[in-house]
Write a structure and sequence with these properties.
By secondary structure, the chain is an alpha/beta fold. The chain is built from 17 helices and 29 strands.
Amino acid sequence: MSLMSGVVVCLAVFGAVRLCSVLAGLRLCLVWRASWKFVHVALCTIKRDLMCLAVILRVRFSMYRNLRNRSTIPALFAQVVAKHPDKPALIYEATGEVWSFRELQERCHAVAHWVLAQGWAEGDVVALYMENQPLVVALWLGLAVVGVEAALINNNLRQQSLLHCVSVCGARAMVFGTEMRGAVSEVSGSLQPDMALFSSGERDEEEELCGLRVQRLETLLDRSPKHPPHYTPRKAFNDRLFYIYTSGTTGMPKAAVVVHSRYYRIASFGFHSFGLCHDDIMYNCLPLYHSAGTIMGVGQCLLFGLTVVVRRKFSASRFWDDCVKHNCTVILYIGEICRYLLAQPVCSSEAHHQVRVAVGNGLRPSVWEEFVRRFRIRRVGEFYGATECNCSLINIDGKVGACGFNSRILPSFYPIRLVRVQEKNGELLRDSQGLCAPCLPGEPGMLVGRINHTDPLRRFDGYVDQDSTNRKIAHNVFKMGDSAYVSGDVLVMDEYGYIYFRDRIGDTFRWRGENVSTTEVEGVLSGLLGHTDVAVYGVSVPGVEGKAGMAAVAHTGGQFDLDAFLIAVQKALPSYARPVFLRLMPSVDTTGTFKIQKTRLQREGYKPQGSSEKIYFLDGRAGRYEAVTDELYSAIMEGRVCL
């Protein structure tokens, strides 16, 4: 080898050594930085994580104890009654009526005796179609005493939606409030001939409704004994309690199965996570056909001895007056309620209440801080969850805007994950091994929760309809061979593990605190309009929570009777599902397989279009649809028009 060649080789070797040294240094630096970042995140979140760990362990141990003892919600309620029988359990704001724990239990026993007298057996279903009142609680709880299951039906539903909910659960009977008489009358001809009907609030002991016999419930309950029935139910902690309906992503409402252990889990996490006390008085104006009102709310009464004030319907103007009147210390909310309260003029009662904790979901960051500041709320207990889900989240330390968190230190302790999805269709994206691809901090993704039917915290009990249940389950998510519940919601997690709600996958939108199924509304509107093409979707309105409903209708020539359309819509759809905007156009975009395309329609919104199309706005105060002009469009965009 020549001298020059040797020099070149030496330089090459020296360079390689230097390069390796530099790369090793870089690797060490990156490892050090990653380690330091982990230490930083751990120090910032360890208190939060330990607080939540304590709650999870407490709930888990109590659930395993109840599982071992074959406990049920009525049995656990009986233990609470024994501790303080004369304490107020439920207060009905509409009448001022107060039920003690003993009185509530006696009414439940009366319901149980009535059920046995009817000859119903465990596993039979009774539909409850009523507005908020304490009797709703006594009914489903009394049914559960003897193993009969209640179906809690949204009292806003009418016609086909109502019929669907009654039939899908296989109800043998229906109890309806006198206020729902007209709605029941509309569907009476389509009910099963052998369905038993009972009305609450009617004067006559017995009457007829469109040829069907209707019995007065109060008369029957007054005749029933108030002592415990001589009956031992076969049901245990993981057996069915009742059904709550959810709109889901497509089609008619789905009957979600709520078992005793699920009821206990939701209520327990609420009590232990947000610092509630046994002496608290909770103000509950949320509907009792939703899990928030009947589990997170009433569950605090039945399982932990709180007094719950039940209001028939939410009233923004009376909210703080009610809280002062009843010395409430806890309130239940959904995000829209908080915004409505902020929109009210300042009143004296908002400064004199004793409320210290607000528990609920959907409180947006833009509203959160102003709500806390104006109404002097010391603690916000925001959570995320659905009636049927196994991946609920809790914001245990009041992080503004977050609906919960997942630990960055021990992420596998609570097996949930955000996974990547396709934007267009919401399909889960897979990695090279066929597993779902997890999201990085800051990257939006679908929330999923691993299913384990032997763990009460990880169960997914699904819906009455097995096909609907199967559609919510994905396989090979965390590891090969596993299964997970797919929430249908897109969330995002920051570097500290705090999780924020982003959007809802599927054909739904949220308006006035309710999930609206566009497929269901399309079917109703199309039927009203002679089966014409209709596209329903949600559109954003500046300064308003959720998305307002908009319907694009294929209409060619002739006069479109807006007044008649509105009257028909008001009869067929609940208020939150009625189109706020209406677009009449020659034809609705469809695919080659006749599936309606909404991308362009959603993008264009309610801005006035060409001469061949007309857009209308539902003026709630005037009670009619008005044409959207450039001036009206500007007023809506600038917040000068009240929706």
